[in-house]
Amino acid sequence: MELQRVLVKGGVLSPSELKHIIVFAETLGLKAISFGSRQDILFPVVKGQEEIIAKFPSIDLETLPRKKHQNISCSYVASEILPSTSWIGSATYLYVLEQFRSKTTLEINITDPKQRLVPLFSGHLNFIASQREDYWYLYLKLPDWEKHQLYPVLIYTWDIGKVAAMVEQHCLEQTKSATIFEKVNELVDSSNNRTIDKPLEIPFAMFPYYEGMNRTVSSSTYWLGLYWRNNNYYLDFLKALCDLCLECKIGKICITPWKSIIVKGIQQHYKIKWEKLLGRFGINVGHSLLELNWHLPVTSQSALDLKQFIVRNFDQNDISTYGLTFGVSSRYSKNFTAIVIQENPKPKAVQNFEIRPTYNVLYAKNFDPNTLQYLTYAQDVDKIELPGLLMELSRLYFDELEETPRVTELTIEENTPVQSTSYMVHQCKNCLTVYDERFGSLEQGIAPAIPFGELSSTYTCPLCEAGKSEFKELELIV
Hints:
Distance between the termini: 37 Å
Structural class: alpha+beta
CATH topology of the largest domain: Sulfite Reductase Hemoprotein, domain 2
CATH architecture of the largest domain: Alpha-Beta Complex
Mean pLDDT: 85
C-alpha cells in the first residue's frame, strides 16, 4: 500500500488542526488514519485525489517513501506526565519548535534524557537537554555516518533552529564531522555556547505505561493515553475527541512515537465526560503490557501477525514484560527498542521458492536502547523459536535489574573526525540513500564489490525508487 503523511512538527497539534486533517481524510473517502514512529499522521494514497488536495492547501502532505522532508520529533508529549529535567516545561518545546519555520530534510529530535517515551537518538540531529538551564547536547549521525558524533559544545536553546539549519545546509557538502562543526561554529554566535563540563548522563527508568486515564505529575489534572493495536484511528471518534478537547479548553493533542495519542490537562470536573466518550465509542484502554510496548513497521501485516503470535505465547505462559520494549524490523531499520526481532532477507539463490522466513534476535546493552549498543542473542531462527527466546531474554532482563538505578554515561568520542580513508559512493538526490559498492545492496540481490557504473540501467533506489540517473557521486570519508 502506498502511503502519504502529514508532518506534525514535534507531534503536537491543536484540536482544530487535527479536525481539519480529519475533514481532509473524510473528503478523500477514508474511515481511519494511522500514526508514524516520528509522531506524524499517515493514510493511504487515494486515486484522483489531486483536486481534493488543492482544496486543502494548509495540509503539509507528502507521499512515502519518496519523502523529501522529515518530521521533527520531541518530548513535549512526555512533559508534565513523566519525570523531566528540572528546567524544561511544555512551553520550552513549543518555543524551540517555533524556531523551525521551514521544513527540514534531516530527522531532528529534541528530547529530555529523563523520559523514556520519545527515543533520544533516532534522528540525524539529536538535541538532548543538559542539567545546565537552557543548554543542550547535540549528537549527530548524518545519513552517511556510521557512528554518532558529539558536537563539542552545549547549544543554547535559542540557537537550536540556527544550528540545525546550518548543519542541514552543509551536511551534503561535507561528510567529515570536524569540517561541519567548524563551519557551523563560524556561522552561529559562539558566545552563546557553553563548554561541556561533564558527559551526558541518562538515568535508567522502566518504560512507562502510557495508556488510560492517569493523574498528571504534581497536578490535580489528568492525562489520557489511547492506543489501537491495529494503528487505525477511526475518524468519527477522533472528531468527537477534538470537539471535547475544545469544550474542555484543551489546546494541544500529542502523538507519540508508539503510534498512540495523549491528551493532557483534563480537569477533574471534566473527567466523567471523557469516560463517557470512551464508553460511547467502545474504546478499550486496558491493553496488556505484553502487547502495548511494541514498535512495528506501518501497514506490515506480517509484522503484526508475528507480534500477535508472540503475544499469545507470552500470555499463555504468564510472562511479565514490564519495562521492556520490542521492535520488529528489517536489517536496515533504525532500532530504538530494548529487544529487536530482525527478519532476514530471502537468500538470492532461492528467490523463486517459497521458504519460511528466519529471524535474528538482538537486545540493547543493559536492555537500554540509549546505550546505542546492540548485542546478538540468536541468529537465523525460525518463527516458532522466537517466543521461547524472548521469554529467556525477559527473565534475563529482570535478573539483571539493579536495586540502585543505574545511569548510562555516554562515552561517544567527542568530535573525533571520521578517519581520513575515503571512498567514492553514489547518493540518491531525492532521499539521500547511499549506494556503496563495498557493501552492495543485499535487499536488491546486489553483491558487494559491484561498482555503481556496472549496475543495470534499470537500477532504482531501494527506498524511493528513483532511477539510476538520480544518483550523484560523492566522496565518503570514513
